[in-house]
Amino acid sequence: MSSDMAWYPLLLTLLTHCTASWAQSVLIQPASVSGSLGQRVTISCSGRTNNIGRFGASWYQQLPGKAPKLLVDSDGD
Q1: A biological process (GO) annotation for this entry (predicted)?
Q2: pTM of structure
Q3: Residue 44: which pLDDT band, with cuts at 50, 70 and 90?
Q4: pLDDT tens-digit series, residues 9-25
Q5: 19: number of CA atoms within 13 Å, CB side?
Q6: What is residue 77's predicted lDDT score, i.e. its pLDDT?
Q7: If we measure between CA atoms, which residue out of 15, 19, 28 comes closest to residue 57?
């Protein structure tokens, strides 16, 4: 193997790692939000990467003993 080709496995590993790290979006939000009847609650969500706006986000309400109900749906466009 030539000395130039010896760098290919290392370069491929670095590119794969960097691309995967950049492309992964991380959302930060509380596990749950609760309130009393008639009280306004705020759902917060933030991202740690600069590409978070390209992806959609959905929020669901799940009351005890009930199935989740879609509240907000965004496709990211």
Answers
A1: immune response
A2: 0.46
A3: confident
A4: 544 444 444 444 445 56
A5: 6
A6: 53
A7: 28
Residue 54 DSSP one-character state = G
Token code pair at residue 60: 């669901």
3-state secondary structure of 10: helix
Question: In this predicted structure, what is the pLDDT of residue 6?
Answer: 54
- 47 exposure class (CB count in 10 Å sphere: 0-12, 13-18, 19+): middle
Exposed e or buried b for every residue in 8-45, given b needs 16+ CB within 10 A? eeeeeeeeeeeeeeeeeeeeeeeeeeeeeeeeeeeeee
- Confirm if 50 and 23 have CB atoms less than 8 A apart: no
- For residue 41, give the nearest of 59, 66, 64, 68 by alpha carbon: 59
Report which residue type is found at 24. Q
